[in-house]
Write a structure and sequence with these properties.
heterodimer, A: mainly alpha, Rna Polymerase Sigma Factor, Chain: A, Arc Repressor Mutant, subunit A, 2 domains, 11 helices, 67% helix, B: mainly alpha, 5 helices, elongated
Chain lengths: 216, 147
């Protein structure tokens, strides 16, 4: 992480802290800054849990409300973003327990019709979406680590913190989840993304769709 | 990027279930999951969240009155009634005992004294029958539509 990025993240963390302090002091409007800053990441995280846009917004809204109610419980031991993501993951988990998403079993997920020779072939949205939807068909204990691992740009520590479990346990579950996916999509699993020959740069890959860069 | 690779390596090496691919490079599967189109919040999302937060804040300032927990209170109320009832009975027991031992003079009514009461009963019965007849006829008239 560059010095500039580190400073930026420290600024954001300080800003979060300031907003939280103001909210706790009775300034309700200060919460708007928190929502404005974290609405994108939370909706994207919810989207990964349910793959339903309207529901993702509902779940994110519920997560913000829970955050509002429990703001005083943030002990400052972890960063605000870690606390918020952990809280949101809890909310999403219980929401999906109440009303599960309707998904096909993992075996019913189609393998992309043509062998994906390189990442270019996989990059067709249809194939990628098939894989992403297949994640929802994983057993719950493996599904969530997979979702959070990729949401947090493959940062095991942060994803484990979001789930509130030790890294070792998280890695074990993640490995099993990925193994199940590899078993379902053997062609894709054996293909390596050739970064050197593609236009998709790793850094851009890491930043797409999550907005969690601010947490670093 | 390096982190992406190293985490992948770390994850794979930490597990007994080894990947069937070279962990040094993320697979196409990883890339499919890592690259996700960003969902943007709808325009009204922020406002709707803040509306609910404001509602919540207002509720915190002026909490709604909590309804009386009758279900929980009923056993207590019954117990209290029983205790007070028993206490009352214990207090008045000497009075009851005295009343039972009290000998009242036997009152005997003569037949001549009962007669006016008997005729009053007949008058009341006749009035009641008249009232019933009037009510019945009124009901019939209403049903026929004359009234």
């Amino acid at each position: 992480m560059s010095q500039k990025a580190a400073n930026s993240h420290a600024d954001l963390a300080a800003s979060d802290l300031e907003c939280v302090e103001r909210v706790l002091a009775g300034d309700v409007c200060a919460f708007e800054a928190i929502v404005r800053r974290w609405q994108g990441p939370l909706i994207n995280l919810a989207w990964r849990y349910c793959r339903d846009r309207a529901r993702a917004e509902e779940m994110a809204q519920e997560a913000f409300l829970r955050a509002w109610r429990g703001l005083s419980q943030w002990r400052r031991e972890s960063s605000f973003s870690t606390w918020l993501f952990a809280l949101a993951a809890n909310v999403f988990r219980s929401e999906l327990k109440r009303f599960p998403t309707v998904d096909l079993p993992l075996d019913a997920a189609k393998e992309p019709s043509r062998a994906a020779r390189q990442f270019h072939a996989l990059a067709t949205e249809e194939s990628a979406e098939t894989v992403r939807r297949a994640v929802l068909a994983l057993p719950p204990r493996y599904r969530e680590p997979v979702i959070l691992f990729y949401f947090h740009e493959m940062d095991v520590a942060q994803a484990a913190a979001t789930m509130g479990m030790p890294e070792g346990t998280f890695k074990a579950r993640l490995a099993r989840g990925r193994a199940q996916l590899r078993g379902r999509f053997p062609q894709l699993a054996s293909e390596h993304a050739a970064y050197g020959s593609t236009s998709i740069e790793p850094d851009s890959v890491a930043g797409v769709g999550t907005g969690t860069e601010v947490t670093r | 990027m390096n982190r992406l690779k190293t985490e992948s390596i770390r994850t794979e090496r930490a597990e007994p279930h080894k990947a069937d691919l070279d962990p040094a490079l993320p697979s196409a599967l990883d890339m499919a999951l890592a690259t996700e189109e960003e969902i943007l919040p709808t325009s009204g999302f922020l406002a709707s969240v803040m509306d609910r937060v404001q509602e919540e804040a207002a509720r915190v300032v002026a909490p709604t009155p909590i309804s009386f927990p009758w279900k929980r209170a009923i056993p207590g109320i019954l117990l209290a009634l029983a205790v007070f009832g028993w206490g009352g009975f214990e207090l008045t027991r000497p009075v009851w005992a005295a009343l039972t031992t009290l000998k009242m003079p036997l009152v005997t009514l003569r037949a001549s004294d009962l007669q006016p009461l008997e005729s009053a009963g007949w008058v009341a019965g006749a009035l009641a029958i008249s009232l019933l007849c009037w009510l019945f006829s009124r009901t019939l008239t209403r049903r026929s539509g004359l009234l």
